[in-house]
Amino acid sequence: MGTALLLCEDCKSDPVIQAFQQDYDIRHVVRQRDALAFLRTHLPDLLLLDLDMRDVDPYLITEEVRSRDPAGSVIMLGISRRKQDIPEDLYQRLSGVL
Q1: pLDDT at residue 73 in the model
Q2: Are 55 and 13 in contact (CB under 8 A)?
Q3: Any bridge partners for residue 45, and if so which?
Q4: Order of strands across the sheet with 2-7?
Q5: Residue 11 in 3-state DSSP?
Q6: What whole-number distance in Å separates Cα of residue 56 and Cα of residue 91?
């Protein structure tokens, strides 16, 4: 069973997240600083990030993983309730690290 880091406020009951519970030990945090603290001591197999959360920088989260394991792969599932696509500036920043 792999480990997943879930950064969200209220998405634990989301059906997508529940589906991952079958294959991953999910560590849930609600603040970016808690996610960064977790990543300083653990390298999860999967990142599950709520892209709608204010004060969360997905780029910073992925950079923390890369700083510990530059050759490793980052699998990130972004969860968003917006009807529009990911904002272009976020897409551009993440395209260099994912």
Answers
A1: 64
A2: no
A3: none
A4: 24-29, 2-7, 46-50, 76-79
A5: coil
A6: 14
Q: Which amino acid is at 96?
A: G
pLDDT (tens digit, 9 = 90+) per residue, 29-69?
999 999 999 999 999 988 888 877 778 888 888 888 888 88
Question: Which pLDDT tens digit goes with each residue over 2-23?
Answer: 899 998 888 777 888 888 888 9
Tokens 């603290």 sit at which residue?
A: 37
End-to-end Cα separation, the chain, in angstroms: 23
pLDDT at 80 over 80: no
Distance set, CA 93 to CA 9, 54, 60, 87, 89 (Å): 23, 17, 10, 10, 6
